[in-house]
Amino acid sequence: MAKVDYEIPETHEFPIIPSIMEGAMAHSSPFVAAEEFQSDMGFPSPEEKGQLIEGWKEKFLELMEDKLSKYRSLQVFMDICVKCGACTDKCHYFIGTADPKNMPVARQDLLRKVYRRYFTFAGKYFPKLVGAIDLTEEVIRDMYSYFHQCSECRRCAVFCPFGIDTAEVTMAARDMLAMIGMGQKYSNQIIPKVHKIGNNLGLPEPALIDTLEGLEEEVEEDIEIKVRFPLDEKGAEILLVTPSADFFAEPHIDGLIGYAKVFHATGVTWTMSSKASEAANFGLFIGNYEQMRQISLRIRDAAKELGVRRIIFGECGHAWRVAYNHLNTLAGPWDFLDQNYPIPQHILEFTKDALDRNLLNIDKSENDHMTLTFHDSCNIARASRIGDTVGSQFTTPRQVIKAVCNNFHDMAAETIHDATFCCGGGGGLLTDDLMELRLKGAQPRMESLKNVVADHGVTHMAAIGAICKSQFTKVLPYYGMTMDQIVSVHQLVSNAIILEGQGEETSDSDDADEAA
Ligand code: SF4
Ligand code: SF4
């Protein structure tokens, strides 16, 4: 755990809304993408590093006009806020940093004030009366800072009586900023790797093959059963599209082992793809629909080339948000897939169905050393379902956990389901240059976790978001917990599942030992 020169927020038994501290996070900005990363994305770069492109102001306003006419929701969000204040204390970044510009309404206002100035009658002629401001370089830099202090989690939208979605405002702002030379380095560095290599990590095919072979050996050593991790196998029934963190990071990789065991136990044929070896879609984070489309099209190409009949997504929050909501419009029609199954399907739906049909042999006691709680990933909780009923995104993961674990306790009601708190690292903010924001933004989730640890003896938190898992492994130690307290849901499935033939040799030899 690296030492930091700022204070980690305290956690309390009951949430405390902080007194505001003007400018507390004004210094927080992610690295701006250098020319190479802007040009890799096809985005313009300024002549001098750190400057804006020539004619930036006209360009920004032109883009804004275009977005306002294309996306009616954005226009409505700019117009209808009544400043009721219901959202002000709902953002984890405000709660953790006390910076008033991290209140969702204030974040929206960074764009709204410019909107008023250039796109409303009152703002054009009486700007001061309606809080309209000129678009200056200072305003742009403020936007860059605070629109990168929003994880697009939509918690504020749940509490806004008008449903104003700050995530959408953030996405629009980030896209416009990138187009005037202020793209974010972290996202712009990652997206081209997906196009060139197939995944966010830049893990080439030979390395992927090596990793998967290593996993097969590891699992065989562990349970003495050969569980396959197939790659690019034509004619397989299912294409698994999973976040690349599942190939190497802890606890993600234990989740991947869990998916493989479930597929093995149910007898389906499946494969991963080297072309689409990434479920993540950072096009969402930068608010660029064309990037979202191109990233999604890799999955379509891979599915067609491999001749699969079904597509299943692994544990990744924002990937599922994009897939659930947009895969059809971005990369459909999917008429070449089997229409008897959801397109796409979440791995938890598959596992729950297998559990319901008694296809899995489960020994829940294998997880008895843990008492679990569950972190609802915001992208899944507030932007999708996992199943076909209202609220299935909350019930399905819990049903699976309870089917494989004896000990489970939810965190406080006001911090789960659609009121869940973001892990603090979502929305393209999982970068070391935003570590202070990530640590402070994690405060509300850490608080509810610590309370359920103290009150109910919870030892571990399960999650189904790849970013959530990475963020928690990093922040848990700063809040007095350990990084291994975060687990994948399919890690729990993996622990509890007993595959056919598993343990037989061991018990035979045990019998022989006893007889001898
Ligand atoms: S979308 Fe989430 S991170 Fe962004 S302002 Fe709303 S609550 Fe905060
Ligand atoms: S809750 Fe909605 S209407 Fe009220 S201040 Fe926030 S964004 Fe505006």
List keywords for this structure.
516 residues; four-stranded parallel beta sheet; three-stranded parallel beta sheet; 7 strands; 47% helix; 4% strand; globular; disordered C terminus; binds iron/sulfur cluster
Summarize the structure.
This protein is mainly α and 516 residues long.
Question: Which helices and strands, and how do they pair?
Answer:
Layout: H1 35-40, H2 56-70, H3 72-80, H4 92-97, H5 104-119, H6 121-125, H7 137-146, H8 155-159, H9 166-178, H10 185-196, H11 205-223, E1 238-241, H12 252-266, E2 270-271, H13 289-306, E3 310-313, H14 317-331, E4 345-346, H15 347-356, E5 372-375, H16 378-381, H17 392-404, H18 435-441, H19 443-456, E6 460-463, H20 466-475, E7 486-488, H21 489-496, H22 504-515
Parallel strand pairs: 1-2, 1-3, 3-4, 5-6, 6-7
Bound molecules: iron/sulfur cluster (2 copies).
Description:
With 516 residues, the chain is mostly helical. The strands form two sheets. The chain has a four-stranded parallel beta sheet with strand order 2-1-3-4. A three-stranded parallel beta sheet has the order 5-6-7, sandwiched between helices. Helix 17 runs parallel beside helix 21. 49% of the residues are buried. It binds iron/sulfur cluster (2 copies). One iron/sulfur cluster binds next to helix 5.
